[in-house]
Input
Amino acid sequence: MSAIPKEVLKEIIKENHFENVGEIYSYLKDAFKDLIQEMLEAELDVSLGYSKNDSANKNTDNVRNGHTKKTVKSQFGTFELDIPKDRKGEHVPQIVPKYKRDISGIEEKVISLYARGMTTRDIHDQIKDLYGIEVSADMVSKITERIVPEIKEWQNRPLESIYPFVFMDAIHYKIREDGHILNRAAYVVLGVNIEGNKDILGIWIGENESSKFWLGVLNELKNRGVEDILMFCVDGLTGLKEAIQAAYPKSEIQRCIIHQLRNSFKYVSYKDLKAFSKDFKEVYRAVNEEVALEELYKLKDKWGEQYPYAIRSWENNWDVLSPFFKYPAEVRKIIYTTNIIEGVHRQFRKVTKAKSVFPSDSSLEKMLYLAAMNVMKKWTMRYRNWDQVLSQLAIMYEGRIDKYLL
Output
């Protein structure tokens, strides 16, 4: 089950003025009851083939016919539900089956399995084995559709005023639209806040990477309250440099050193790779930019004629590689690589590997959101030596951090 965003929890606490644990439990019980009620209504939608107040898509002479009351038991105790009925009596409830009054665990199991990338067939089999209940693919879709408002709320939540570091990358998928298979990019933005904690700021589903789309993402961050970003850590993504310079002109751009090395090594013969990579260590381990350039020129003298493209890519991108060299080891460890966001992508691939093609953008968005919530639950520690990192940044970016530390 996905975690509720902190901003939503804060708003709930603010609105309800809880005074003790009992009041919190009572609130959760009511919320749980409302969720089950929504699922029951969704179940009847699937059974009849059309949603309430959507007669345009009605393809049956059967109709809704009120509700009957039923008291059920759950992990939140007992409560009363209104079980929806159809006029012909053909609808067979599955979420709360006839004669069943203990519903502990069924509803959260569906979303939990979906969040872990299981196919609707696998979810059907799991629920049937555990509870003896048939949950169709349509029902799984209806259940997970209930988290769409939660996704929108998370995607539009206010953000912090400043992020010292922001990592940006895209991961690619295929979706089916009007009978055609189309490419989609999931644009992921991960921020490190002033306390040194990581947070996924948003996930945007769009067409293949472009400066226009990235600019839209960055402008959305500004509209959600992000006033300043000290450094963007990125791979060589199409159009990203131009978009950053347009949206946050004071920010530095640091290209991932690891990705740059990989790109260089593609041009090097396997027999020379070990010696070449050993010589390159003198470049990216240099104490400052001046020494790094000297080592790069030495490398060029030795290997440039044989592997010109491997060296040229460093020269062409030096403006987004060189910021790295002015920082101490504590900061370099953070900006050296975009592995943190690649780790998020690995989790995304893990839960989406069963789906080669998604039926819609919404389907992809739901699964990535649930996976992101599971990833962030594990981020309980801030970056190591963060106090030293922040002290360095406060000096190097004089005047840009101080007002946010008060």
Remarks:
- The beta strands are 64-74, 77-86, 162-177, 180-192, 198-206, 228-234, 252-255.
- The chain is about 50% helix and 15% strand.
- Residues 184 and 249 are 28 Å apart (CA to CA).
- The radius of gyration is 26 Å.
